[in-house]
Amino acid sequence: MRYLPKSPSERVEMLDQVGAASIDDLFKVIPAEYRLERDLEIPRQHGESEIIDFFKAAAAKNGLVGYASFLGAGCYRHYKPVVIDSLVQRGEFLTSYTPYQAEITQGTLQAIFEFQTMICELTGMDIANASMYEGSTGAAESIMMAARVTGRHKAVVASTVHPEYREVIATYTQHQGLPTTVVGYNAETGRVDLDALAAQITEETACVLVQSPNFFGVIEDIPAIAELAHAKGALLVVSIAEAISLGIVKPPVEADIVSLEAQSFGVAISYGGPFCGVIATKEKYLRQMPGRLAGQTTDADGNRGFVLTLSTREQHIRREKATSNICTNQALVALMATIFLTVYGKEGVRDLAIHNLAKADFAAKTFAAQPGVKQLFSGSPRFNEFVLQTTETPADLNARLLDQKIIGGVDLARWYPELGNATLWCATELNTRTQIESAASVIAATAVLA
Questions:
Q1: Is 63 a residue whose pLDDT tops 70?
Q2: To which H or E segment does residue 347 belong?
Q3: Residue 409 gets which letter from DSSP?
Q4: Which phi and psi (to 5°) does residue 425 adopt?
Q5: What is the pLDDT of residues 129-181, one digit of tens each?
Q6: DSSP conformation class of 241
Q7: Long-range pairs for 443-448: beta carbons < 8 A, 24 or more residues apart
Q8: Distance of alpha carbon 23 from alpha carbon 269, whole angstroms
Q9: Residue 163 half-sphere exposure, CB side, CA atoms within 13 Å?
Q10: Tell me: domain 83-341, CATH 3.40.50.720, correct?
Q11: CATH number of 68-80+346-449
């Protein structure tokens, strides 16, 4: 019944209800030339044990079993506590949809409320939604929100923002009458060029968008950027792709809007999604924030309860007044993040961030010590990612690493050709000292090959 939910007798009963004598009779309204008169070319049916064996064998061909990975660039490998899957697979969470009926969805609403609270504590903002699709749509929606708040219709975006985030932003803004200007970075620090940024901010600029840690893993000077933006009446939007960084990096309290990707909080990479984007902001901008918001209240008997409040319902029934075209949320994925943060707690998240920082520092120093390798932007503060420049091409280097079951850094030539043979590396708590030293030994052969 698990794989064949309708028995033969049930099918006969269903056909009888619609007045059809058989399946063929049911589909006779379809012209014969469009009907398939043979069996589907699919494998025979399998028993449950056979299906499990099939998928185990398929899974063994995928994933990182037996491989060390130093990939980051917006998707981060962190340990996911097993309790997350145990809780999110409960029926009341896994099968629920939008919690309009508060009387029967208190669990989902409370989870959203707790998620919002934790995000505010992490980001230093007053309110947070739950949620956007993921970090890139959150960044784009933040720009549109800033335009509504300020009444202006231009944006300035740092080139150190994730390149794929910038592609999504371009898709969003191209038909919104919201031109964006991209500002370059300082070749020494890897931070956005403050002089170039200042020159681009005008009285027509709705917001400045930066990412911190940025795509190179470098921490941007948020107070200085905020001062430049606010001096011209523009808002500052800070995008955060690596949420674990908030365990140790000072939250961007100078920002007006924070766009966060919460994938690092216990959400599996899963081939790139589904993830969980969040917008957090100052209370005064509440009514321009897209997405859902759960609020705490009391019922007629004085008991604590939760409801959707200030939900932008225009997204469902009055589209011309909508703040966003996103009319659903990622409540189940946000629940994963909520459980993760609850399990780790404040000190645990800080310890995890310190662990990531230490691993990345050790990896960067170990790799940079090899012949033919240079670490770029090494003088700037960073989190768990760093950029290496090598005499060997990234393609050749990564091919040799892969032969040793090591997945190397991301080739940056696609987005930053001016950096030459540069790769972006990431080290998290899941990268062991042995893995780092093994990768270093492969990298060391660069000088010999050159």
A1: no
A2: helix 331-368
A3: P
A4: -115, 150
A5: 988 999 999 999 999 999 999 999 999 999 999 999 999 999 999 988 999 99
A6: S
A7: 443/367, 443/370, 443/373, 443/390, 443/397, 443/401, 444/370, 444/371, 445/400, 446/370, 446/371, 446/372, 446/373, 446/390, 446/391, 446/392, 446/397, 447/370, 447/371, 447/372, 447/391
A8: 42
A9: 11
A10: no
A11: 3.90.1150.10
Per-residue exposure over 308-326, b if at least 16 CB sit within 10 Å of its own CB, e if not = beebbeebeeeeeebbbeb
Q: Which residues contact 73 (CB under 8 A, 6 or more apart)?
A: 162, 215, 385, 410, 424, 426
Give domain limits for the chain: 68-80+346-449, 83-341
Report the DSSP beta bridge partners of residue 132. 277
Distance CA(359)–CA(430), nearest Å, equals 9
CB-based contact 130:331 (threshold 8 Å)? yes
CA dihedral of 225, 227, 230, 231, whole degrees rounded to 10? -120
pLDDT at 1 exceeding the cut of 50: no
**Omega before residue 270 within 30° of 0, cis:** no
Task: Report d(CA 216, CA 184) in Å as an integer.
Answer: 13
Rounded to two decimals, the pTM is 0.86
AA identity, residue 279: I
Residue 87 to residue 94: CA distance in whole angstroms: 9
Residue pointed to by tokens 């589209």: 319
- Contact (Cβ atoms closer than 8 angstroms) between residue 428 and residue 384: yes
Summarised one tens digit per residue, pLDDT across range 244-303 is 999 999 999 999 999 999 999 999 998 888 999 999 999 999 989 988 889 999 988 999
Rounded to an integer, what distance in angstroms lies between the CA atom of residue 44 and that of residue 338?
42
Residue 221 CA from chain centroid, whole number = 23
Between CA 124 and CA 113 the distance in angstroms is: 16
Strands (E), 92-198: 127-128, 154-158, 180-183
